[in-house]
Design brief:
This protein has about 325 residues and is an alpha+beta fold. It folds into three domains: about 5-90, Alpha-D-phosphohexomutase, C-terminal domain (TATA-Binding Protein, 2-Layer Sandwich); about 100-210, Elongation Factor Tu (Ef-tu), domain 3 (Beta Barrel); about 220-319, Nucleotide-binding domain of ferredoxin-NADP reductase (FNR) module (Rossmann fold). The protein is built from six helices and 19 strands. The protein has a six-stranded antiparallel sheet, with helices on one face. Strands 7-8-13-12-9-14 form a six-stranded antiparallel β-barrel. A five-stranded parallel sheet has the order 17-16-15-18-19, with helices on both faces. The longest helix has 17 residues, at about 65-80. The mean pLDDT is about 95.
């Protein structure tokens, strides 16, 4: 099923199309000029801007309602920055933010010395375990009633601020089933989520938005590098990759858990150095995630090594 909506910008002098071209360049996503207008392709969705003498018409189509609403909100925000106010035929005013679900915390367990596993339950939890790996966890401030992000009349998502501001880190679904999902928190000083998990939050309601981000690369030969923050995603890839996989993890041995017995996993002291020393076959896909500085260095190393950009990911999971 294809979800669609339309909008209109009046008295536009080309600013909307210029803004869309700039955004496509920033996000490195396709923007094509077709007979009907300018088409912006992102999140498996398409937005078409059709200029005429009176302004610009906007048409959005997407395979999922949450993606349609996400793109609608993103475009509204983009155009409002240019002092343009699109008028949409349909807006889900007052609804929860696109892709958001409310879940209840049902279990918090110590998985290892460094990791805590959290189980959430909710009626549509399974969708966070398929496709993209990641979701954004929304934690209300302790002692205050939850105030959730909702869609405004403009089509934008309005987030609570001030005393109602939410802690909203990103995590990876590591296990899921009917109406439940689990994710792992790496415990470390200065982490608001670690502090929240230590408060025994069983019974509390949280929000999650997604799924989003990456998933397992479609390649029969994967070489993975990561630290503690990347280990949940690497666990998923080791489970799902159909071909040959090697993983180099910069974690404490006691935190490897079931991966300690996996012959495909090597424990390393420095994943950046491990990347430099690793043999990477032609056609292999390299996946690297960790601190922003290490991801930047990994990106530069791989390009210098001649690995095509389409054949690697170097993601900043923290900074």
């Amino acid at each position: 099923m294809l979800h669609q909506t339309k909008g209109r910008i009046t008295r536009d002098n080309g600013a909307a199309i210029d803004a869309l071209k700039k955004r496509a360049l920033e996000w490195d996503v396709p923007l094509t000029e077709e007979a009907k207008g300018f088409c912006f392709h992102v999140w498996n969705s398409k937005a078409t801007l059709i200029p005429d003498e009176m302004g610009v018409s906007i048409e959005i189509s997407s395979p999922e309602q949450r993606l349609l609403q996400t793109l609608q909100g993103s475009l509204t925000e983009l155009f409002e920055e240019c002092l343009l106010c699109p008028k949409w035929d349909e807006v889900a005013e007052g609804a929860l933010a696109p892709g958001m679900s409310l879940m209840q915390v049902v279990a918090v367990t110590k998985r290892s010395e460094g990791f805590t596993r959290v189980r959430l339950e909710g009626h549509d939890a399974e969708r966070f375990g398929t496709g993209s790996y990641h979701f954004r966890l929304l934690i209300p401030r302790k002692g205050r009633p939850p105030c959730w992000p909702r869609i405004a009349a403009s089509g934008r998502t309005v987030w609570p601020e001030g005393d109602d501001a939410l802690n909203r880190p990103c995590y990876t679904t590591v296990a899921y089933g009917e109406n439940w999902l689990e994710f792992d928190i790496f415990r470390h000083d200065g982490s608001p989520t670690s502090d929240w998990a230590a408060e025994e939050p069983v019974g509390r309601t949280v929000g999650i938005i997604g799924p989003g981000g990456g998933a397992c690369p479609e390649n029969d030969n994967l070489v993975l590098f990561g630290d503690e923050t990347a280990m949940p995603a690497i666990i998923r890839m080791l489970q799902e990759a159909p071909g040959n996989v090697r993983a180099f993890l910069q974690v404490r041995r006691e935190d490897l858990c079931e991966l300690a017995a996996d012959a495909r996993v090597s424990l390393v002291e420095d994943m950046g150095k491990a990347l430099e020393e690793a043999e990477i076959a032609d056609g292999a896909y390299v996946w690297f995630a960790g601190h922003a500085d290490k991801a930047k260095a990994a990106r530069a190393h791989l390009i210098a090594r001649g690995v095509a950009k389409k054949d690697f990911t170097a993601a900043a999971y923290w900074s």
